[in-house]
Design brief:
- By secondary structure, the protein is of the alpha/beta class.
- The protein has helices spanning 17-24, 26-38, 58-65, 70-88, 93-96, 98-108, 112-122, 128-149, 169-199, 204-224, 249-262, 287-300, 350-353, 356-359, 395-403, 423-438, 485-489, 492-514, and strands spanning 229-240, 271-274, 303-311, 318-326, 329-336, 376-377, 383-388, 408-413, 442-446, 452-454, 471-481.
- Helix 3 (58-65) packs antiparallel against helix 4.
- It starts with 16 loop residues before the first helix and ends in a 23-residue tail after the last helix.
Length: 537
């Protein structure tokens, strides 16, 4: 006979008396929720403990399922979400100061319904079918959180759980099928199955069977997922000048970039890529700088992709623009960055939050946005898809470029503000996911490291340039033909997750309608002596 589900009670909920006392107090339980939410952080670079992602959510879910009420479980979700955001983005603290805490608290609100959902599906002693349904519904709920916080105004899709698997071949194959979203679904599903194994003895057989099914599914994807066919290679050079601070840093950085580019003469490269904000002058207003870059193109025999961070002479405002420079100077190929970093490149609601510039490194003036993505044709026939900075975190942007015919994806970045933190490694790792999703190689070129290159399947090409390097490196980048299933069909995994949650809402709605209304209380009749009459007498 199936066990009856009773929230807050059931097998497997037997923490020690000391733990019970801690969790019974508001402060203790709140601190435990924040700490549990922080646990997944080491799965991301720099620690890069990718395997830890498959167990890191277990304490958080154990806490939420033990909540005495749905409201308390939702609070556990919020506090855990705040801890997650703070831990994964802790390197923002030197730049944003108190705004990092406010951002964590704000984005953490997205996990409110997820905490409630954990208790709904796993609280008490759920039936075996309900526990197995949780293996689908809880990952789907998590995916909705990731989808919501992928809005650039909330910091963009940085720290998606699936992106922790950037160096795992099986995870990259899953990404080629359903994007990073499908990988996140798998990681959360494994965590849910572990919670079932730990807390519901009567459901362990079903949980083990589900784990085996997950392993077989991943193995099948690893073996049989279609892969874009490699056609030929392109020789791409990355120029990383290193850290330059203080007065005149832009000019010294430009000079170092020129110096390193000259070393590429005679190496028969097809393209030279500089990092974000590598040029601090508008090339139209400074024809002398444009001619210096054109001379470099003639010297190495290849186009040079630079990134200009300057006030434009043909329109108002400051743009960050990828500009292709050929032997005759800047070409018509230009891409203006579309998705800007909150506080770093603009201040949201500046009239209210403008004071952030006085307590952190927030942008003193808002950059302006581009309007559309661009595929740049090179003189040698190579078609280039540029992205700038954290745009490499957005799966939809690289997918659009691949569908528009880009053969090579290039992300120009500058993480000099966050030297010595986890940020440079985290940022570089995103290129592996985008390459695997689209079946297009990706070059991640930075001013100060980490610069790296990944092939069409997400495998590394050559050696990366670390944050301690000032160098130019040449990579033989394999090019591929054809689209991956993700590039072709898009976010189907997200759609399935939405459908699963919609079915849950419909089922809960039907159940609430079928639930009999509470019977009105029966008033006791009184005798002539004033004493209540007993029912049935």
């Amino acid at each position: 006979m199936a066990k009856r589900w009773t929230p807050g009670r059931g097998p497997g909920q037997g923490p020690s008396a000391a733990v019970k006392r801690v969790l019974a107090s508001r402060g203790g339980r709140g601190a435990a929720a924040v700490g549990a939410g922080m646990l997944p952080a080491p799965a991301f670079p720099a620690p890069g403990l990718w395997w830890f992602a498959y167990v890191a959510l277990v304490p958080w879910m154990l806490l939420a399922r033990s909540a005495p009420t749905g409201r308390r479980a939702a609070l556990d979700g919020w506090l855990g979400g705040a801890g997650f955001v703070l831990a994964v983005h802790h390197w923002l603290l030197p730049s944003l100061h108190v705004f990092t805490l406010l951002l964590a608290a704000l984005v953490g609100l997205l996990w409110l319904p997820w905490g409630w959902l954990v208790r709904l599906m796993l609280g008490g002693g759920p039936t075996v079918p309900r526990a197995l349904a949780a293996v689908v519904l809880l990952p789907s709920g998590w995916l909705m959180v990731e989808l919501a916080r992928s809005w650039e105004g909330l910091g963009g899709p940085w720290g998606l759980l699936g992106s922790s698997q950037w160096e795992v071949t099986a995870g990259l194959r899953l990404a080629s099928l359903g994007g990073v979203w499908l990988v996140s679904l798998l990681v959360v599903a494994v965590n849910v199955l572990l919670v079932v194994l730990l807390t519901l003895p009567y459901a362990r057989t079903a949980a083990v069977s589900a784990l085996v099914a997950c392993v077989l599914l991943v193995g099948a994807c690893w073996l049989w997922a279609p892969r874009p066919a490699q056609v030929h290679t392109a020789r791409v050079a990355v120029v990383q000048p290193g850290v330059f601070d203080g007065a005149g840093s832009a000019g010294r950085r430009l000079a170092r970039g020129e110096e390193l580019t000259r070393t590429l003469a005679g190496q028969r490269v097809d393209l030279v890529v500089w990092g974000e904000s590598s040029v601090g002058e508008d090339l139209t207003a400074r024809p002398d700088v444009a001619e210096r870059l054109a001379a470099l193109s003639r010297l190495v025999g290849a186009d040079v992709l630079v990134n200009v961070d300057a006030r434009r002479s043909d329109r108002p405002g400051i743009h960050k623009s990828s500009i292709l420079v050929g032997p005759r100077g800047p070409t018509e190929a230009r891409y203006d960055k579309m998705r800007l970093v909150p506080f770093g490149e603009y201040v949201p609601a500046r009239a209210v939050l403008g004071w952030a510039t006085s307590v952190g490194r927030a942008a003193g003036e808002d950059r302006l946005r581009g309007t559309h993505q661009v595929v740049m044709p090179l003189a040698n026939g190579l078609r280039l898809g540029p992205l700038v900075c954290f745009e490499s975190a957005f799966p939809d942007m690289s997918r659009r470029l691949a569908r528009d015919g880009a053969q090579l994806l290039v992300a120009q970045s500058a993480t000099s503000t966050f030297q010595g933190s986890w940020a440079p490694r985290q940022h570089a790792s995103l290129a592996a996911l985008r390459a695997a999703e689209t079946g297009r190689p990706m070059v991640h070129a930075t001013l100060t490291g980490v610069s790296t290159v990944y092939g069409p399947g997400g495998a590394p090409v050559g050696e990366p340039l670390g944050t301690d390097r000032s160098a130019a490196a040449v990579y033989d980048v394999p090019l591929a033909h054809g689209l991956t299933p993700y590039a072709r069909y898009g976010n189907w995994a997200v759609t399935l997750a939405m459908c699963a949650l919609a079915l849950l809402l419909a089922a809960e709605g039907v159940r609430s309608l079928r639930k009999p209304a509470p019977r009105p209380p029966v008033r006791s009749a009184r005798t002539v002596r004033g004493s209540p009459a007993r029912p049935g007498r």
